[in-house]
Amino acid sequence: MRILLVEDDALLGDGIRAGLRLADYAVDWVRDPDAARLALLDHAYQACVLDLGLPKRDGLLVLKDLRHCGNPLPVLILTARDSSADKIAGLDAGADDYLTKPFDLLELQARLRALIRRASGASTPTLEHAGVVLDPASKRVTRDGQPVLLSAREYTLLHDLLSHKQHIRTRSQLEESLYAWGEETGSNTVEVYIHHLRKKLGTHFIRTIRGLGYCLGDAN
């Protein structure tokens, strides 16, 4: 899952990025509104963590512009502004959640999971298909009740497919989910992880749609 982090504080931004990477998020970190606008134009994200006290332009205006353009991206405001008036203003501007600094990293991760879950239309915390169950909170995957050990990339790819189970995912969309800026991508990386997942979850669990991409099949 790919997250956009908009935070101008170097120390805090580095810590948040590191913490979210440990939770298997691919994180693109920008420090000002102009860079955030360009990132949102060029890439698809599952959520955005947005500071309000940004240089050049207030983060609240960034959020308003995003909503004015009709972009439904889940946005979690993460800021030192802790008054009720600030929270109301942020939520009324289109934020999906509001968390004040200082904060607990595990709470931030949980709130992001909830935002992404709601955005994908999931009614339960777990993602399920053909006997395979993925629990985003514990990062536990089972097949017919038995645990399945996955690498971080395999887990991320499976999460993406399960989150879009009614859709075909292109190779580029899967790469966007797997990698943040600066991370090297091999020419057949997605195919390698698809192959690994098929070995662990069933040959037909992931279908190849020639010329289009991949979608979920069955576990046989």
Automatic annotation (TrEMBL):
Residues 124-218 bind DNA. It comes from Candidatus Accumulibacter phosphatis. InterPro entries: CheY-like_superfamily, OmpR/PhoB-type_DNA-bd, Sig_transdc_resp-reg_C-effctor, Sig_transdc_resp-reg_receiver, WalR-like, WH-like_DNA-bd_sf. The keyword GTP-binding does not apply. The keyword DNA-binding applies. One of its GO terms (molecular function) is transcription cis-regulatory region binding. Residues 124-218 form the OmpR/PhoB-type domain. The modification 4-aspartylphosphate is found at residue 51. Residues 2-116 form the Response regulatory domain. It comes from the Bacteria. This is Two-component system response regulator QseB. GO terms for biological process: regulation of DNA-templated transcription.
